[in-house]
Predict the 3D structure of the following.
Amino acid sequence: MEEKTQGQLRREALLDVKKNGYDRLTAEDEVAMKAYCEDYKRFLDAGKTEREVVDEAVRLAQARGFVPFTRGMTVKPGDKFYRINRGKALMLAVIGEKSMADGVSIGAAHIDSPRLDLKPQPVYEDTELGYLKTHYYGGIRKYQWVAIPLELHGVIVKKDGSSVKVAIGTNPGDPVFTINDLLPHLAAEQSKKSLNEGITGEQLNLLVGSRPFKDDEGSERVKLAILDILNQKYGIVEADFISAELEVVPAFKASDVGFDRSLIGAYGQDDRVCGYACLAALLDTEVPTHTAVCMLADKEEVGSTGVSGMKSAAFDTFMSDLCDAQRVSLKSCYEHSFCLSADVTAAFDPCFPGPYEKRNSAYINYGVGFAKYTGSRGKGGSSDASAEVVGFVRRTMDAAGVIWQIAELGAVDAGGGGTVASMMAERDIDTLDAGTPVMAMHSPFEITSKLDCYMTYKGMKALYQHN
Ligand code: MN
Ligand code: MN
């Protein structure tokens, strides 16, 4: 073998050469990755709303020995607890060997996704067609939500206080719904508009029927016939929509994408890809050194507001109740804790290179992405993790054999985004953004890579199991 030149040696010693994750993936990880991604796709199909994700996560947690945590319970290492916040957010913990005064390891992700919510008075008829009015939730590109099959999921609280769950489109043979676009033959004027204006918010009306109520001479016979079907099926009347949360979501199943099946296409991967990684890693954690906590938050897509969002005191109350069980102060726990704010990042898309900066982008198949900061216009709104925090994560990930990358979300001033990282950091918890790179983020069919999905899980597990 020829001796290496000085240049080769120095190159190896000094340069940070990036290698595709598939050139580094072990045979063992490849097997685990495939199994993990099958489970992940099932999880996506089972949970198309934050409520459904909570239900499914609780089902999985109970099967692994997690029990509801109530104030005043005693705790010991290895105990597994969960607490549901109003059916829409979920907190889980595995008690560690060390006292919570030495800090906990937190994986925090959000389980709400961009979608179309029904308005409180949604039902109407126009030209003998039945529609539901919607109000979009989160940052959608409106033109992407027309001319695709859609499902309706959610809950309706009736006048008497009883509630009924709705999930139309889930079961084989279910009908779907859609929002029409204009035919190209007549779209000359519409086509001149910008993408942003081509479809407006008030045009996002869901087509839900066309058959008039039979043998009736009155007006709005299609609307009446639809309400009659809903009354027979769910026992509801029109006014019950007032106290309902009904979400219109894409009617796509999670699928392998590509001849090589290396990618996953599905609705809602932002941020259920990280939510599932945090959850699955916690379920696979037996007796950690530090107590491991998984937070699955709601309302991130509208600013983490409200009683079920990351700003809610529900998280602090859960942590405080756990701390009380060990008679330690919440403040002491927080100041020694560490959080990976697990939220997706933008993967470089070679078909749209413009808004990315190639040297600092996340790439498909380069592993879980860490972001020192997010935000926009000069890191605005970002928690901007310290060098020490990033250093800790580097060491932890490398020691566990995690394939990872460091990235920004887009070029400077090209846009940006926020996560729950700042809310964790403001609680006096060291926090770093971490997440799976996604292409076509916030679209009805988002794309991730299996390798990156699995490495997000492996990274969360490394955090939960660090000493
Ligand atoms: Mn997100
Ligand atoms: Mn998002």
Notes: The chain is about 30% helix and 25% strand. The longest strand covers residues 115-126.
